[in-house]
Amino acid sequence: MRAGLSGLGLSPTSEPSTGQAAAGSARPGWLVARVLLWYEAHARPLPWRAPGTEPWGVLVSEVMLQQTPVARVVPAYLAWLARWPGPVELAAEPAGEAIRQWGRLGYPRRAVRLHAAARILTTRHDAAVPADLGALLALPGVGTYTARAVASFAFGQRHAVVDTNVRRVLARVFRGVATAPVSRVADDLRLAATLLPEQPDLASRFSVGLMELGALVCTARSPRCTRCPLLDGCRWAASGRPASGGRRGQGQPYAGTDRQARGELLAALRSAPDPVEEAALRARWPDAAQAERALASMVADGLTVRHPAGRVGLP
């Protein structure tokens, strides 16, 4: 890695030029070099980063990581790939088995969409995850971020990959603010693109390195600034780490919500080998109206199907 950096004329000891970099007018070599070297030393040994990981494994990891912490994803990811090492194996089973295997990861529609994607990959892409960005975007449950992440991390392509962690690093280093406003998403994507090394393999490593830096060091709460390789070029640190102008969200409550009701009813269906009586299923939640509302939404989302004789089960 160090030889590759010197060949690019990038030096981690060169002086930052935040004024120029903030305008997006030049690629700051100091930042690229420091992120790459930091990632080389501190990257977590996550299973989807292991050498030889197939693009299918990268796609599964990116879908699971949507709105779910890494610590919860790792065991679920390993179990998923042990059961379905490729899209063909998953496509051969009903969607209900994907929901059952998904367990308590949350947002189970992701399992349904991943199952639908597996069937598309099997029938239209010779059972392989496509490298083309447009083809990735056409898969169920794959948005702009996920498509770029798979193209970059599975195929080593040169794409700006911007998640919440990356946006926070960019906001602090270049704009001097604690958080990245939603209104600046497009700007952050353009800024990240100006930072990418020209070599696709280095660009891919830089993208994941910037994400890792945001996840481990430049965190939303209690950032470890003294451990940050970008500290001396960070506008936010230089200005005394001012707090965000808006109020910090308290997070969406879960207890007593329709989402909790859905989770409890779906857990009952996952544990049942066969469809169950609808009345008995609704009785598992104390609020009858809320239970009916939750069940109707599960049917609408493709998580549950109604059978004859008043029974419901997984699809």
Describe how the helices and strands are arranged.
Layout: H1 2-7, H2 18-22, H3 29-42, H4 55-64, H5 70-83, H6 87-91, H7 95-102, H8 109-124, H9 133-137, H10 144-155, H11 164-175, H12 185-195, H13 200-216, H14 235-238, H15 258-271, E1 276-277, H16 278-282, H17 288-300, E2 305-307, E3 311-313
Antiparallel strand pairs: 1-3, 2-3
CATH architecture verdict of the domain at 2-45 and 159-238:
Orthogonal Bundle
Number of helices: 17
Bulk shape: globular
How far apart are the first and last residues' alpha carbons, in Å? 48 Å
- Using the coordinates shown, work out and report the CATH topology of the domain at 2-45 and 159-238: Endonuclease Iii, domain 2
> What's the β-strand tally?
3
- Helix and strand pattern: HHHHHHHHHHHHHHHEHHEE
Supply the CATH superfamily name of the domain at 2-45 and 159-238: Helix-hairpin-Helix base-excision DNA repair enzymes (C-terminal)
Q: Which stretches are poorly predicted, pLDDT < 50 over at least 5 residues?
A: 18-26
Write down the Rg: 22 Å
How would you sum up the major sheet?
A: 3 strands, antiparallel
Instruction: Tell me the structural class.
Output: mainly alpha
| Arrangement of strands in the largest sheet | 1-3-2
* Average of per-residue pLDDT values: 90
- Just give the CATH class of the domain at 2-45 and 159-238: Mainly Alpha
Q: Give the helix proportion (percent range).
A: 40-55%
Beta-strand content estimate: under 5%
